[in-house]
Write a structure and sequence with these properties.
The protein is mainly alpha-helical. About 60% of the residues lie in helices and about 10% in strands. It contains 10 helices and 3 strands. It has a 3-stranded antiparallel beta sheet. Helix 2 packs across helix 10, helix 4 runs antiparallel to helix 6 and helix 7 runs antiparallel to helix 8. The radius of gyration is 22 Å and the shape is elongated. The termini are far apart. About 25% of the residues are buried.
Length: about 250
């Protein structure tokens, strides 16, 4: 399975007013998550369709699709929506051509490493997957470096650094890895880079952000139990309720 990255769409060019590169112009790049989010939402819906009911009747299948169509698959299920403002703030960023091209290279290498066939035991495969994981981390690191260097509109104080380099990076990694890795690994893959920073940054992240991400790992759009059997039974109840509602509407109509 390929790793799905957000698209970096060049929407324009702007003069380079910094002294950090010899390039006269910077790309104005839109960070587009639509393809990633749609891929994940479709994959999650397919999971419900595949595992909720064995050999469903057409009526049950139709009812299940109705239940799933009533769910917001582009909201809290993808990342904590209280941080939507962060993605909105950095939806377009300025970066040099060299950054843009390196990001394309990093995403390509991450996918290639992730998909390589490795005929080793589980422990060895897990270690070797670190190469792909690191390429992915560097993709988002470079985006945040561009934010810090080329997109500052105010003084680069502690808040600017925390939001642009720490919070944004962890949220991008979280949104990227969710449903592309196991839930038990999601938080660690999204935040392990923070460990190398000062204790004040680590403490601030733990206090302000950590619990939001941990809670979101287990978020269910249908508000069902984590237990598979309990969830399956609850879904069957929802489907039967929808079937009854459909039959009643047909009688009334």
């Amino acid at each position: 399975m390929n790793l799905e990255f957000p698209e970096l769409k060049i929407v324009g060019k702007v003069p380079n007013k910094t002294s950090n590169t010899d390039e006269a112009e910077l790309y104005l790049v839109e960070l587009d998550w639509y393809k990633v989010d749609t891929f994940k939402s479709d994959r999650k819906k397919d999971w419900y369709k595949k595992y909720t009911i064995s050999n469903p009747t057409k009526e049950q299948s139709d009812a299940l699709c109705q239940v799933l169509d009533e769910v917001d698959w582009y909201g809290e299920i993808l990342y904590p929506q209280k941080y939507k403002w962060v993605f909105d703030k950095y939806s377009q960023i300025k970066m040099p051509k060299s950054y843009y091209e390196e990001c394309l290279y990093l995403s390509k290498m991450a996918s290639e490493e992730w998909n390589r066939s490795r005929p080793f035991d589980t422990n060895v495969r897990e270690e070797l997957l670190e190469a792909g994981i690191k390429y992915a981390e560097l993709f988002f690191y470079l985006i945040c470096d561009a934010v810090y260097i080329y997109n500052s509109t105010t003084s680069q104080n502690d808040d600017f650094y925390f939001y642009g380099s720490i919070l944004f990076r962890s949220l991008m990694l979280y949104r990227f890895w969710k449903f592309q890795t196991g839930g038990g690994l999601l938080y660690d893959k999204s935040t392990r880079f923070i460990k190398k920073y000062t204790s004040s940054i680590v403490d601030r992240f733990d206090l302000e952000v950590k619990q939001d991400l941990i809670d979101n790992v287990k978020f269910d759009p249908l508000n069902l139990s984590d237990d598979y059997l309990v969830k399956s039974d609850a879904m069957k109840v929802l489907i039967e309720q929808k079937i009854r509602d459909n039959r009643l509407n047909q009688l009334i109509g």
